[in-house]
């Protein structure tokens, strides 16, 4: 890791806050801030978190849903287990065909909310990273459509770029309200933003 990067991280407010408050990532605050504003996760909800390692969003979601809700974290990487009985994790690839079925077998009922902070390995080539990120977001949308209950919510990370508008149009096709969010905890110079689809449309 470059020295300058390590120093910047140490100075970072949300990085230090996460350490102090025992959250596994600074990203935790992005989810808290977005939910505080739009209330798309509620007490008692079933939440599926895609690209969940090391587990900061899982911790935030568990805090919001409480003991009567349920949180499933999915990642290609191992996630250190949680002690709460209503938090489960699986190792799975969100681009694999059978992942939605695996998820449906593990959650107590169809999900109220699907969230995804999944991110590709950054190549540094902007167009490549944007395309890979949009691809992961499309996979997350596909999983959301298969695992969400009617009127469920979807929250996903994307990078800004020329493929973003097409992706937003797809989310609009399936959700009644769509918001574009840049939480305060997301670094201003990062091109990441979040797309929130609220109330999955029903067939009729
Ligand atoms: C930014 S991290 C998520 C951080 C997490 N929200 C937190 O607060 O701890 C992105 C994650 O996406 C995961 N990921 C990337 N591609 C994936 C895929 N195809 N399937 C599942 N997980 C994936 C990575 O392994 C990585 O752990």
Key descriptive features of the protein:
204 residues; alpha/beta; Rossmann fold; seven-stranded mixed sheet; 7 strands; 39% helix; globular; binds S-adenosylmethionine
Describe the structure.
The chain has a single domain, classed as Rossmann fold. The model has no long low-confidence stretch (mean pLDDT 94). By secondary structure, it is an alpha/beta fold. Helix 4 links the parallel strand 1 (46-50) and strand 2 (70-75). It has a seven-stranded mixed β-sheet, sandwiched between helices. The protein has seven helices and seven strands. The structure holds S-adenosylmethionine (SAM). S-adenosylmethionine binds next to helix 4.
Quick recap of the structure?
This protein is of the alpha/beta class. It has helices spanning 3-11, 13-20, 28-38, 56-65, 99-106, 126-147, 164-174; strands spanning 46-50, 70-75, 87-91, 111-116, 148-159, 175-181, 192-200.
What's the count of strands?
7
**Approximately how much beta-strand content do the residues carry?**
15-25%
Give the overall silhouette. Answer: globular
CATH fold node name: Rossmann fold
- Give every kind of bound small molecule, once each: S-adenosylmethionine
Which value, in Å, is the CA radius of gyration? Answer: 16 Å
The proportion of residues forming helix, as a percent range, comes to 25-40%
Question: What do we call the CATH homologous superfamily?
Answer: Vaccinia Virus protein VP39
Record the strand order, biggest sheet: 3-2-1-4-5-7-6
Q: What structural category do the secondary elements indicate?
A: alpha/beta
CATH A-level architecture: 3-Layer(aba) Sandwich
Number of domains: 1
**Main β-sheet description:** 7 strands, mixed
Order of helices and strands: HHHEHEEHEHEHEE
Figure out the total of helices: 7
**CATH structural class:** Alpha Beta
Regions with little confidence, pLDDT below 50 for 5+ residues? none
**Span between termini:** 52 Å
Mean pLDDT over the residues: 94
């Amino acid at each position: 890791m470059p020295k300058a990067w390590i120093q910047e991280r140490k100075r970072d407010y949300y990085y230090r806050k996460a350490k102090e408050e025992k959250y596994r990532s600074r990203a935790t605050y992005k989810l808290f801030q977005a939910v505080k504003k739009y209330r798309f996760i509620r007490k008692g909800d079933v939440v599926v978190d895609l690209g969940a390692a090391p587990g900061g969003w899982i911790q935030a979601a568990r805090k919001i849903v409480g003991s009567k809700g349920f949180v499933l974290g999915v990642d290609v990487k191992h996630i250190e287990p949680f002690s709460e009985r209503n938090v489960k994790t699986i190792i799975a690839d969100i681009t694999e065909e059978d992942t939605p079925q695996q998820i449906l077998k593990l959650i107590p009922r169809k999900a109220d909310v699907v969230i995804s902070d999944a991110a590709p390995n950054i190549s540094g080539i902007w167009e490549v990273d944007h395309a890979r990120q949009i691809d992961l977001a499309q996979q997350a949308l596909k999983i959301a459509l298969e695992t969400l209950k009617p009127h469920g919510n979807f929250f996903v990370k994307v990078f800004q770029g020329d493929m973003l508008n097409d992706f937003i149009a797809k989310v609009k096709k399936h959700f009644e309200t769509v918001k574009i969010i840049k939480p305060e905890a997301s670094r201003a110079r990062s091109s990441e933003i979040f797309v929130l689809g609220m109330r999955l449309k029903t067939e009729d």
